[in-house]
Amino acid sequence: MSKLMDSIKEKAKVLGKRIVLAEGEEERIIRAAEMATKEGVAKIVLIGDEAVIKAKCPDVCLDGVEVINPKTYKKTAEYANLLYELRKAKGMTEEKAAALAQDCLFFGVLMIKSGDADGLVAGAVHSTGDVLRPALQIIKTKPGISTVSSCFLMSMPEDGPGAKYGENGVLVFGDCAVNPNPDSDQLAAIAIASAETAEKLAGIQPKVAMLSFSTKGSAKHELVDKVAIATEKVKELAPELAVDGELQADAALVASVGKLKAPTSTVAGEANVLIFPDLQAGNIGYKLVQRLAGAEAIGPICQGFANPVNDLSRGCSAEDVVCVVATTAVLG
User: Fold this and answer.
1) Closest to 47 in 3D by CA, of 26, 71, 21
2) pLDDT bracket for residue 36 (50, 70, 90)
3) Could you tell me if 195 and 220 lie in one domain?
4) Which of 18-32, 51-65, 204-218, 310-324 shows the lowest per-residue confidence on average (mean pLDDT)?
5) Do both 215 and 321 map to the same domain?
6) CB 229 within 8 Å of CB 272
7) Is residue 287 located within the same domain as residue 309?
8) If you average pLDDT over residues 78-86, what whole number do you get?
9) Which residues contact 167 (CB under 8 A, 6 or more apart)?
10) Which residues pair with 122 in a beta bridge?
11) What is the full DSSP assignment across 240-297?
12) Distance between CA atoms of residues 160 and 173, nearest Å
């Protein structure tokens, strides 16, 4: 585990946040609940039937873990009423709300909406769409943020060539998992959210590069225009943020190239937050750096929600879940 992840866990321990693990009857999640509680990274709420959980993992000690069964919980009816009130204008009925309030994902976000939890982690057995949908409907986005997106924290090996880039080898890549083809407004929102994540989780002063195949008009194309417009929108919405674009990746990262291609830029050659123009570029980019440079890829970290909700890979390990719990706690 990298120093970065150790640092995130230490931050989480101080905060004492209450994090919901919605898929509480899944073995990896049960084991992660035990591990996260022993490490002290968060107060864990495990959603599920306690008898099922104990039968599935009889060797796991859940002392200190709160297990909640939506079918018997004292506040489930209250949550159902909240869901009905929030969604009745969209066609929600009382009967449907009562049923959905017993669904582990809806139940978890209703806990957050009610102030009974600080964040949620799921996705070990549910798709990304299934995890994000209740959060989009109930928690919704932060004020001023219109787009939910994702980023990865990329931590380069200390002895590798990538260690000289970003902030001591740490970079933030966004969006690599959620928005297939963001427009300029969405791209600007992704940049602002990614900068906030960089500051909160990695403790770095963000320098944001809006990436393209062009640097400062070196190429003409509508795809370049999208990035250039997005850059101006970021400057309008977050004037305090160090941001520049459009920049090619080498101009963003390499000081000598940055000076040559964008000599007046305060970001070129020093960027630590890289915003990709679309999901194809972002997803390919982070996986190339992960595999070819041996970087630790922490994420995807969802950003833009009013309260943190994070999606797991369905191939995750219990250790991976603990790391996501820690990041969720810090973002909360």
Assistant:
1) 21
2) very high
3) yes
4) 310-324
5) no
6) no
7) no
8) 97
9) 202, 204, 205, 272
10) 311
11) TSEEEEEE-HHHHH-HHHHHHH-TT-SSTT---EEE-SSHHHHHHHHHHHHHHS--EE
12) 19
Contact criterion met (CB below 8 Å) for 248 and 215: yes
164 and 278 share one domain: yes
CA 218 to chain centre: 33
Number of domains in the chain: 2
Tell me the C-alpha distance between 297 and 76, whole Å.
37
| pLDDT tens-digit map of 275-332 | 999 999 999 999 999 999 999 988 889 999 999 999 998 888 999 999 999 999 999 8
Q: How far apart are CA 218 and CA 201, in angstroms?
A: 34
- The pLDDT score that the predictor gives to residue 105 is 97
pLDDT for 127-179, tens place per residue?
Answer: 988 999 999 999 999 887 889 999 999 999 988 888 899 999 999 999 998 99
Range list of H helices, the chain:
3-15, 27-39, 50-56, 76-87, 94-100, 104-113, 128-138, 184-197, 222-237, 249-253, 255-261, 279-292, 318-331
* Same domain as 292, residue 309: no
**Overall pTM > 0.85:** yes
User: Domain residues for 278?
Assistant: 149-297
Please state, in angstroms and rounded to a whole number, the distance separating the CA atoms of residues 284 and 193.
21
Residues 185 and 232 in one domain: yes
Domain co-membership, 188 together with 78: no
190 and 290 belong to one structural domain: yes
**Three-class secondary structure of residue 168 per DSSP:** coil
